[in-house]
Each structure stands twice: as structure tokens, then as C-alpha cells.
Amino acid sequence: MMNPLSPKDRIIFALDLPSLDEAVKYIDLLKGHVGVFKVGLELFCACGPAVVRAVNERTSGAGVFLDMKFHDIPATVRGAIRSASTLKARFITVHCDEGRGLLKAAVEEGNVSGAKILGVTVLTSLSREDLVDAGIDASRFREPGDLVLHRARLARLAGCAGVVCSGLEAGMIKKEFGPDFLAVTPGIRGAGEDRGDQKRTVTPYEAVYNGADYIVVGRPIRNALDPVKAADSIAGEIERALKDREGKGV
Ligand code: C5P
Fold first, then answer.
1. Which residue(s) pair with 38 in the sheet?
2. What is the pLDDT of residue 1?
3. Does position 138 have pLDDT exceeding 90, yes or no?
4. How many CB atoms lie within 10 A of CB 42?
5. Could you tell me which of 99, 106, 32, 122 has the C-alpha nearest to residue 66?
6. How far apart are the first and last CA of the chain?
7. Which of 141, 144, 90, 135 is nearest to 114 (CA)?
8. Across-strand partners of 64?
9. What's the pLDDT score for residue 98?
10. Nearest Cα residue to 19 out of 42, 53, 49
11. In the structure, what pLDDT confidence band is assigned to residue 12 with cuts at 50, 70 and 90?
12. Which of 208, 209, 172 is nearest to 217 (CA)?
């Protein structure tokens, strides 16, 4: 079953910016060209709920992705998601690596306000070597994808709406969990584009062709000479990937 979202609705633009004024500039510029605005730690620490209200007030129905990547004891995460309920975020992220207690608390509280909880599996800035550094058992999880799948299983069992993973892993998520479990993929870069701190990167076409429902894009749009043109060109790639997937009956 194919998700009926339009190509542009599948773009989550990361508002990784230091102030409300800067964020508003990009919200006004990109509304109508992306489907969701992602508010992460930098912006939320700078201006808090005001930026979420700005997205809701200045756009006609763009979603808010509250990327707080909560990571704490279940009671604290539950409380944080309860506090966020007035913000009407479409998506809220929590880390998967503390196991089911945190995930279940998040999902139960998300159900109250209608926010979809996404489990962050393995950050797209991490490579195999970084996981070894972090003390992950390399004999059990030989590649980041093995750990992504393990954590996605926990997220699924806890009732999360989906996971955040790299576009390299979107295919296996869809294969194991089916079309309704969302694969949201950051670490998006054009061919040959500077990767910055990201390591497990793919192009917008590859991510969606592999099965991503949404792609998270920050710098490739924000740093483009013409951000609107960059977003529209990404939507074009998404459209091609969706057609090719359909053509192949994927
Ligand atoms: O600028 P760039 O496109 O790399 O931004 C990616 C965004 O996605 C950042 O806001 C980052 O916090 C977020 N993200 C990520 N990897 C994850 C989860 C979220 O890069 N696993």
C-alpha cells in the first residue's frame, strides 16, 4: 500500500537555526515547498514553543517535527511529552537505546495528544567505528544496520509510529515491518555534496527509492544559493523515485 503523501509533503526541513527571526525567514520562504518543519535542540533552546506556534500560524497545515530526541527515565520522558502536548507537534522523537520502558511511556503519552512518536535508532552521523567507540558489541552488531534493526524492533513493540534511520536502512525497515511503520531518514546529500558531520548519507532519490516515507533535509536546502529551488529539485527527485518504485512494484 503506497502512502498518498505528495513529494513535497515528504520533505522535513530542519530549522537548525539560532533564533526565531531566522527561523521565521525560512518558514515563510519554504512554506508550500516542504511538508514539515523540524524544530531541533538548537532552535528550541533559543526560543522554545514560540517557534512551534510560528509554524502553525504562518503556514496552512505544515506539520511540526519536534526533534528533541528525548533520552531519560520513563517518568521524565512521559512528563516532557505531556508538556509538549499543547504544541500540537505531528512527530516527536525519543532515543531507542534505553529500551522499552522509555519508548512505551512516550507512546502512551503521545497517544493522549495525538503526536506520533518516532524512535531514533542510530544517528546518521555515526559509522561502524563510532559504535565500537561507544561500547557497542561489534560481534553482535557488525554494521550500524544490525543495530538499527534491533532498535527498530523495540520501537515497533512499544507501539512507535516508526523510526528515524538512514536511507541506507529504509529498505530493511520496510521489509521487516511493512508499509505503515514509518521510515524517516536524515543524512540526505546530493551526489558529491559536502557531507559535513554526516556519515551514512544517501541522495533524496535513493532514500525514497529504498522506502523512506519522509526525508529530513537541513544544510542542503539551508545553505543553497536558492533554498526554494533546492527544495523543489528535491521534490522532483522524490517524485522520480516514487514513480520508479511503483514501476518496479516495490
Ligand atoms: O543539515 P543536515 O541535513 O545534515 O541535517 C540533518 C538533521 O537531521 C539535523 O537536524 C539532525 O539533528 C537530524 N538528525 C540526524 N540524524 C538522526 C536524527 C536526526 O541527522 N539520526
1. 14, 65
2. 46
3. no
4. 14
5. 106
6. 10
7. 90
8. 37
9. 85
10. 42
11. very high
12. 208
Q: Is the CB of 59 under 6 A from ligand 1?
A: no
CB neighbours of 40 closer than 8 A, spacing ≥ 6? 14, 15, 16, 67, 68
What average pLDDT does the chain have?
A: 95
Do 223 and 210 contact (CB within 8 A), yes or no?
A: no
- Report the SS3 class of residue 117: strand
Is a pLDDT exceeding 90 seen at residue 21?
Answer: yes
Q: What integer pLDDT is reported at residue 4 of this predicted model?
A: 79
Find residue 164's DSSP bridge partners.
120, 184
The preferred substitution site among 11, 12, 16, 184 for testing ligand 1, maximizing ligand atoms within 8 Å of CB, is 16
CA gap 123, 187 in Å, rounded: 9
DSSP 141: -
- Cα-to-centroid distance, 40 and ligand 1 (Å): 9
Q: Is the pLDDT score of 248 beyond 90?
A: no
DSSP for residue 41? H
How far does residue 249's CA lie from ligand 1's centre (Å)? 30
- Judge contact between 112 and 123, C-beta under 8 A: no
Instruction: Tell me the average pLDDT across 142-158.
Output: 95
Helix (H/G/I), strand (E/B), else coil: 131: helix
Q: Can you give the pLDDT at residue 159?
A: 98
Cα 164 from Cα 184, distance rounded (Å): 5
Single-letter code of the amino acid located at 145: G
Burial of 248 (0-12, 13-18, 19+ CB in 10 A): exposed
What ligand 1 atom has the least distance to the C-alpha of 121?
A: 21
Query: Mind listing the pLDDT tens digit for each residue in 112-125?
Result: 999 999 999 999 99
For residue 150, name the pLDDT band (cuts at 50, 70, 90): very high
